[in-house]
Amino acid sequence: LKEVEVVTGEEEESNVLHATAKLYLFDSDNQTWIEKGQGLCRLNDMTASESDSFQSRLIMRTQGSLRVILNTPIWCGMTVERASPKSVRISAIVEEEGVKVFLIMSNPKDSENLLRAIEWRVQRLKAAEESQPKGEERGSEKRKADSTDYEAVGKKSR
């Protein structure tokens, strides 16, 4: 048999922290926690050529099959809190469903390390957002139209 190269999508990232953990998703309809799986939880930093941009993501894969059960960016509005000595509760972005609440259970030492690492990244992103000038907050904001824009539209429609 030939050796097959496995491409995970994490090749351009540096792993900051990894721990074996169990992942639970909060079901708001039934007010219960649903177990998503057990596996390796990894906190990765994206290597960017620009020194001022900083991005991280939290990814978790199940043991054995390596199925992705959590893949969320770390963002400035993310909620991170200790639920118990062995668990960390986070808000995470799920692709089609929006923001969901997850519980990551691990041993107390790994749980503490994960909590501190995510909190530090969230604080750093908040500080970067606050230091950004107001006009540059969103690149997709519409600019104000001046009178020459209206004249150009009027000429095209005639």
TrEMBL record:
Question: What residue spans carry the region label Disordered?
Answer: 126-158
Name this polypeptide is given? RanBD1 domain-containing protein
- Is-annotated flag, keyword Nucleus? yes
Where is it found, in Gene Ontology cellular component terms? nucleus
Q: Where in the cell is it found?
A: Nucleus
All copies of domain RanBD1, residue ranges: 1-81
Entry-linked Gene3D superfamilies = Pleckstrin-homology domain (PH domain)/Phosphotyrosine-binding domain (PTB)
**Which domain of life, per UniProt?**
Eukaryota
**Basic and acidic residues: bias regions:** 126-147
Keyword match tRNA processing: no
Q: What GO terms in the biological process aspect are recorded for it?
A: protein export from nucleus
Q: What is its main location?
A: nucleus
Q: Which UniProt keywords apply?
A: Nucleus
